[in-house]
Amino acid sequence: MKTILFWAVILSVSICQPVHGQFLKQLQKRAQDAVERTVLRKTDEVATQTTEKVIDGAISGVDGSETTNNQNSSSNQIEQSNTALAKHTQAKRDFYKEDMVIKISENGEVIQTQYFDTNEIAVKTQLPNKPKANFIDSEGFVYVFKDGEYTKSAIIALQSQGMMVPTMMVNTYKLPPEPVMANLQKQHDLGMTANPFNGFVEFASIYKPEQFRYEDFNETKETINGKTFTKFEFLNEPGYEGSYVLFDDQNRLTKIVSKRSESVQSQDMQLGTMPIPPGEDILEYEYTNVDVQLPAAREVRMQGQGLMELVMGNAKGGNTSKMIDDSDYDTSDSKGLTKTVNKSISNHKISINDLPESYDFDWKYNTKMVMSSKKQQEINMVFLIKEGANYQATQMTSPDIKDMGNTTMLFDNNLKTMVMFIEANGSNFLQLYPIPDVSNASELKNDYTITQLPSKSILGYDSKGLQMEDDRYIIQLYHASGTPITLSNFLNFGNTKATKLPDIDPRIAKQFNNGLIMEMHLTDKKKSKNSVSIIAQSLNQSATTIQKSDYKSMDILSIANSMKN
Fold first, then answer.
1. 315 inside domain
2. Which of 137-146, 258-267, 292-301 has the lowest mean pLDDT?
3. How many domains does the chain have?
4. Domain carrying residue 97
C-alpha cells in the first residue's frame, strides 16, 4: 500500500477549528509537531533539488500572485453552492450511505456533536458554548465563522490528508487498523479525498462486526431497550480493560468506548510514545435523518500553501471510471497483522553490536523480475546464498533506481532481523528492522487446483513444472532438484519457516524444499497489472563478503526516536 505519511489535514484543523478534550488536544500537539518536521524536511529537499525560480513559484499563490509573510491569500468570491459534491459524486455516495449524529464524549461530558448528511455529504460540527457551527465538506474544506462571515480553507487534498487523525485515533482507541488503511487506499484509487471527515464519519462506513472476529476481541450479545447488539470487548490490551465496540442488529457501528488506566502509552513509529491520560472516551453513533446546509463561504488559502503543494505533491490517484475490485481491499486474511508487526518493532532489541563482523556468501543466483504494473519493467534481483547459513541476502537494481546507489536486503533468521546495507552518494550505512513473527497470520488457502506442467531445461537444469490455480490466481512454478544449492524460502523473503505450499503429494512438497525454483509466473485473472514473473538468469559460485565495519548504523528505531524531539 502506498503510504507516505504527510500531515496536512491536521494543520487545517488546528487553525480553523478549536479542539477540546485532553485526548484531542494531544493529537493536535503531536500532529502540529509532525507538520513542522515534515515541512522543514521537504522544504530542504526541494531547495536542494530545484531552482530558486521554482521555490519562488511555490511560495506564491496558485495563480502566480505572491502572498505576503503576514497575510493569507483569499478569494473575494463567495461560493453559494456545495462545489465539493460535484467531484467524484457517485464514488462518495457509494461510500457514505447513512445520515448520522455522532456524539464525542470525554469522561461523561459531550465535547463535540457532529451531524452528517448523505445528501450534501457534509458535516456540521457543534461545539459547546459556541453559537455558530463549523462545517466540513467532502473535499476536506473546513468552514468557520469569523468576523461576520464564513470562510473555508484546506491545505491541499493530498493522498494522506485524511490519514493523520484517523491513524492516531485507531492507534489510541486500539481499533483494527487494517480496514482503515485498505479503505484509505481504495478512496485514493477512486480519486476521492480520503477521509475528509477525519475518520469520525468514515469509521461507520468502514467497520463491520466481521473485522473484530479474531483473538484480540471477545464477542457477546447484549440487549439494550429491547434491541440486540453485538459487543466486542478488548482482549490483550493492558490498560484498556473494559473498552469495547458495539454494533446494532443491522451490523452498524453504534459505539466505541475507550477506558484507559494511568499507565497507558500509545506507541507509534512516526509519532513515538504518546502518553494517554486516564479516563473514558466515547464515540456514539445514532442513525437518523439529518439536514446539513453548507453556508456561503469565501475560500482562504493558508500562508505557505503553495509550498506545501509543491513539496507534498498532489497525490490524487485514480478516477471514478477506473475499475475497482473490492477483493483488493479485503483485509479478512490480515486480522491482527499490524499489531503483530508493531509488537515486533517495540520488542526489537537488536543493535549493530549484535551483528556478526561479516556475512559471507558462496553463490550468486541472478534472476529477472518482470512486473506488469510497470509496463513490463524489468528488475534484476540477485540472491546471495551460503549453503547451511541461516541468513540470505537479496540485491535489486532497475533503470529507475540505478542512480540511487546499491541496497542489499539481508535476512538474519538467528537474530530475526532484516538488515538494509545501503551505499548512496559515497556513504555507507545500515538500518535494522525486525522480522515480524506472523505465525498467526492466515496461511495460503488449500483450495488450489494442482496440475503438472511439462518439464523444461532452465540454465541447463531439468526443471519440473507445477501449476496451482484458484478463481483469482494462476501460479506456475518450475523447480530443479539437481542444482548445487537449494533455496527453500525463495517465495517468502525473511520468513524463518519454509514456504507453506498447498496440501499436495508429499514428494512434491519435499522437492520444493530441497532444490531451487528456476521460474515463477503469478497471474492475476482480474487485474493483469498485479501479475509478475521471476526468471532465472544465471547461477554462479562467487565469493561475496559484507563487512559490518564498512557501514555506519542508522537503524529505524533510532530514526523514530530522533523524530520525537
1. yes
2. 258-267
3. 1
4. 8-323
